[in-house]
UniProtKB/TrEMBL annotation:
PANTHER family assigned: CYSTEINE-RICH RECEPTOR-LIKE PROTEIN KINASE 40, RECEPTOR-LIKE SERINE/THREONINE-PROTEIN KINASE SD1-8
Gene3D superfamilies the record matches: Gnk2 domain, C-X8-C-X2-C motif, Phosphorylase Kinase, domain 1, Transferase(Phosphotransferase) domain 1
Pfam families recorded: Pkinase (PF00069), Stress-antifung (PF01657)
Organism lineage string: Eukaryota, Viridiplantae, Streptophyta, Embryophyta, Tracheophyta
Protein name: Cysteine-rich receptor-like protein kinase 40
Organism whose genome encodes this protein: Raphanus sativus
Alphabetized InterPro entries for the sequence: GNK2, GNK2_sf, Kinase-like_dom_sf, Prot_kinase_dom, Protein_kinase_ATP_BS, Ser/Thr_kinase_AS
Residues annotated as binding ATP: K376
Segments forming domain Gnk2-homologous: 22-131, 139-249
Length: 652
């Protein structure tokens, strides 16, 4: 229970939205982008029309997709374990209708439904992007209006409640690979003053066990911190569901044995005899031993308290800083305590060092809850303060699965530290330019990486609340997670634009030669088309498996253009891809050449690139000649990107 308590504290401090006022929401929760295109709505109606039947037929869990980007619809239907087929079908059908009613033009939605009359729980979730990532917002809550009652000992009740939470959480997060209900647990317990407490936890099957534990921990924290004393309720997130009440609200509880929440205090039986003289002596001896042991334990406790004082301070946030900070725009960010980071990295030990950059060093760290992090510690007195403020200002406002996640920062005294999610598969250049590892990148994997990078740029340029130009897009700044999904990283040189601003000029050129657009390199002109140029270079590198500066000293764009004009574009294709469809790959070579055209107005937007990638039968323009710029691997400002040092771990 102590571990769970620490986890609850961590989640309460590490998720800013937990501090926002909670509203009870009925019906589907809609979030994300809107799409008023009739094709999207029709695709969703088509897949919803048979969703209830498919969920029942497939044992209580079913996912599918319909259509082509940007009107492609992904759906997930899920019923709790031990459901009755008719009740499950009715529940899913009702939620599909609520989704279409409440979210007619919103592409991301979810609704967990609980029908007490039919005693069934179910989920319907829809999106224009595939599932698989942990989603912790927005929350949906439904809390009983009644209090447990003044006659209940709340201290004892909460002890027993947390005991049952711990049992249910542990059971729910042990993956059951033999069932479609991969993460699920229903438990019925007898409390001292309440004989029938029922609790249910469930996660969607597309996430990991650790993600499931984090998601359910968030749900529990909502109730524990915000609704203490209520007689039950539910909290749901896109990736998980938690409910408890004072009655069996689901059919699963019919086959569950009631457990005791905690051992009851033992009382002396009536009629016990008064101890004799010998017994009293033995009794006094026992008391003496107890007193001695109590005194020894007290001394141990005092010592433990002093030794553990630092750890208790860190546990205010385990994964975080224990505090929040709002910038001038009111944006909430996580501020880590320096002691938290120091402990995670074992006082920045050399064994945990991943590499050295121009403005500091990067270390691998492990927080007290087991979460791995990457810690970028800027060199004291360096000029990295600009990069530090830039990344904190930008990344705390950006949330996308194809962008590296900034977990928080620390700026105590003269320390300036950035804390990122740890991405285990290092950076793209460690794979695509390595003779052995490149064989792991099949065409399907390469296409997924290319598409993911493009989606991340679309988000930066068009879909986020900010308009951001990255300025240093290259293979070493693309990190790969455990499933080889790409994450754009290193925003230290990124540039923030006003929403109506299309271009700007700068005297400080920051980036990497060979990847910088000619108008930016030569004249300091910045626009979204600067990133499009860089994307084109990366795209051609992905197809060829060779670095930009490996082609006869002229750069990959010039080499590809010459082979294109000769009618031999297949020459650029990586020999490892000879078994793959050449027409599809040649189409992407054409896309890459369109991105690197010398005239920026002729280059496509990243949104257009996404359409080309997602549509098979589409005619795209013929490219014009690219700019023949020299290519070098060094950054203009002499800095080393965080992702370069990020990758050292995988080489050890």
């Amino acid at each position: 229970m102590g571990k769970l308590h620490a986890l609850m504290i961590f989640l309460a401090s590490s998720l800013p939205f937990l501090l926002q006022p909670i509203q009870v929401v009925h019906g589907a929760r809609c979030f994300g982008s809107s799409n008023s295109n009739s094709s999207y709505a029709q695709n969703r109606r088509d897949v919803f029309s048979n969703l209830a039947n498919n969920v029942v037929t497939n044992g209580g869990s079913y996912n599918a997709s319909v259509g082509q980007y940007p009107n492609k619809v992904y759906v997930l239907g899920l019923c709790a374990r031990d459901h009755k087929q008719t009740a499950c079908s009715s529940c899913v059908e009702r939620l599909t209708l609520e989704t279409q009613r409440d979210c007619p033009n919103i592409m991301d939605s979810f609704v967990w439904g609980s029908d007490d009359e039919d005693r069934v729980s179910c989920l319907v979730r829809s999106s224009n992007q595939s599932f698989g990532n942990l989603e912790l917002e927005p929350p949906v809550t439904g809390i009983s209006a009644d209090q447990i009652g003044p006659s209940i000992n709340m201290t004892l009740f909460m002890q027993q409640w947390e005991y049952i939470v711990n049992m249910t959480l542990e059971a729910a997060t042990k993956p059951d690979t033999s069932s479609v209900h991969k993460y699920y647990s229903a438990l019925k317990a007898e409390f001292t003053a309440l004989p029938n407490v029922s609790m249910l936890m469930q996660c969607t099957p597309d996430i990991t066990s650790q993600d499931c534990k984090q998601c359910l921990g968030v749900c529990v924290t909502y109730f524990r911190e915000q609704f203490r004393g209520k007689r039950g309720g539910m909290v749901s997130l896109p990736s998980c569901f938690f409910r408890w009440d004072l009655f069996s609200f689901h059919g699963a509880f019919d086959n569950v044995t009631t457990v005791l929440a905690l051992p009851r205090p033992q009382t002396q039986e009536k009629g016990s005899s008064i101890p004799d003289k010998k017994g009293r002596s033995l009794h006094r001896g026992i008391i003496t031993i107890i007193v001695v042991f109590t005194f020894i334990n007290l001394l141990i406790f005092i010592g433990f308290f002093k030794v553990n004082a630092r750890r208790i301070k860190l546990n205010k946030g385990i994964n975080g800083c224990g505090a929040e900070y709002s910038d001038s725009d009111g944006q909430i960010m996580l501020r880590f305590d320096f002691d938290v980071i120091s402990m995670a990295t074992v006082d920045f030990s050399p064994e945990n060092k991943l590499g050295q950059g121009g403005f500091g060093s990067v270390y691998k760290g492990i927080l007290l809850n087991g979460k791995e992090i990457a810690v970028k510690r800027l060199t004291r007195g360096s000029e990295g303060g600009v990069e530090f403020r830039n990344e904190v200002s930008l990344l705390t406002r950006l949330q996308h699965k194809n962008l590296v996640k900034l977990l928080g920062f620390c700026n105590e005294g003269d320390e300036e530290i950035l804390v990122y999610e740890f991405v285990p598969n290092s950076s793209l250049d460690r794979f695509i330019f390595d003779e052995e590892k490149r064989s792991l990148l099949s065409w399907e994997v390469r296409f997924k990486i290319i598409e993911g990078i493009a989606r991340g740029l679309v988000y930066l340029h068009e879909d986020s609340q900010l308009k951001i130009i990255h300025r240093d897009l290259k293979a070493s700044n693309i990190l790969l997670d455990a499933e080889m999904n790409p994450k754009v990283a290193d925003f230290g040189t990124a540039r923030l634009f006003d929403t109506d601003e299309t271009r700007d000029e700068t005297k400080r050129i920051a980036g990497t030669r060979g990847y910088m657009a000619p108008e930016y390199l030569n004249y300091g002109q910045i626009s979204a088309k600067s990133d499009v140029y860089s994307f084109g270079i990366v795209l051609l590198e992905m197809i060829s498996g060779q670095r930009n500066n490996s082609f006869e000293g002229e750069g990959i764009a010039a080499f590809a253009w010459k082979r294109w004009t000769e009618g031999r574009p297949e020459v650029i294709i990586d020999p490892l891809l000879v078994e793959n469809p050449s027409n599809e790959i040649i189409k992407l070579i054409q896309t890459g050449l369109l991105c690197v055209q010398e005239n920026p107005t002729k280059r496509p937007t990243m949104n257009t690139v996404i359409v080309w990638l997602g549509t098979e039968n589409i005619t795209i323009p013929l490219p014009k000649a690219p700019a023949f710029t020299s290519s070098h691997s060094q950054s203009e400002d002499g800095t080393m990107s965080m992702s370069n040092v990020f990758t050292e771990l995988s080489c050890r």
